[in-house]
Amino acid sequence: MTPRIEVVGIDCLMLRLFDEIDEAHMPWLLAAAQRLREAFGAALVDLVPSYTTLLVHYDLAQLDDGQARQCIANALHDLKPETSGQSRELEVPVWYDPSVGPELEALGQRSGLGVAGVIERHSARTYQVFALGFAPGFAFMGLVEEGLASPRLQTPRKQVPAGSLGIADRQTAIYPLVSPGGWNLIGRSPTRLFDRTLEGYSIWRPGDRVRFQPIDHAEFVRLGGDDRPFEVTP
């Protein structure tokens, strides 16, 4: 690990800990995030973890650039990876079906696994929440096995239903709200991901570990899922 500091704004610094995405990096990122919160204290406006970086937004009325950099240096001194087991294990129900996952059959053909094989492989893996963004409650998770990796759609859809589960490259995620999007959709979850009563308005936190539990149509409807078929339009 060779930390670098990059300027991204008059009151924002980007701490880059790694150059490649790897699940093994997450304990270091979580440990650094906690140390940064302690080092900046009340001067910290926001801290945004990502796959390899931490964005530090600080209060210019309390710190100048030099002081902010010193806070980062203090946070990194003798840094050790997080080992306290703070990551949570979450299980999220998903109805994998072509009617709500328009790319499911194509992915089955492209991978040679068929629909059943895609469902089995995708749901068998535990995914790491690397970052939150794009929309409240949207968690970037990975890593999807290489056989299921799929590039984003060339033309993003104008509207993706809430709860849609998708794959983009080796990432996977669920759309928490109706929004535009270009991920390959393979199913839908009835779980409410965006909640104003929760800290950060989301059920997810960076570092969480997630398993998707396949459910049938009846269970999906019982849990409050919207089973209206997806209209395959740009």
From TrEMBL:
Keywords: ATP-binding, Hydrolase, Nucleotide-binding. Residues 3-204 form the Carboxyltransferase domain. InterPro entries: CT_C_D, Cyclophilin-like_dom_sf, PxpB. The keyword ATP-binding applies. Gene3D superfamilies: 3.30.1360.40, Cyclophilin-like. One of its GO terms (molecular function) is 5-oxoprolinase (ATP-hydrolyzing) activity. Its EC number is 3.5.2.9. It holds the Pfam family CT_C_D. The keyword Ribosomal protein does not apply. NCBIfam families: 5-oxoprolinase subunit PxpB (TIGR00370). This is 5-oxoprolinase subunit PxpB. It comes from Stutzerimonas marianensis.
